Amino acid sequence: MTETRGPAPVPVEERLFSLVLALLATEAGLTKNEILSTVQGYRQRYVFGGDNATLERQFERDKDDIRELGVPLETSEPLDESGSNHNLRYRIPKGSYDLPADISFSPEEIALLNLAAMAWREGSLSRESRHALLKLRSLGVDPVEPVLGYAPRIRTRDAAFDPLTDALTRRVLVRFPYLKPGDLSPRERTVAPLALVQHEGRWHITGIDQHAGEPRTFLLSRIVGPVNRTRTPFVSDSVGSAETALRQLDEIWAANTAVVRARQGSDAETRLVNRRGSIRNPDDSLTLHFTDLHLLADELAGFGPEVFVDSPAELRVAVRRRLELTVATHQPLDRPAPDGGDDAEETA
Question: Where is the WYL domain (predicted)?
Answer without folding.
Answer: 160-223
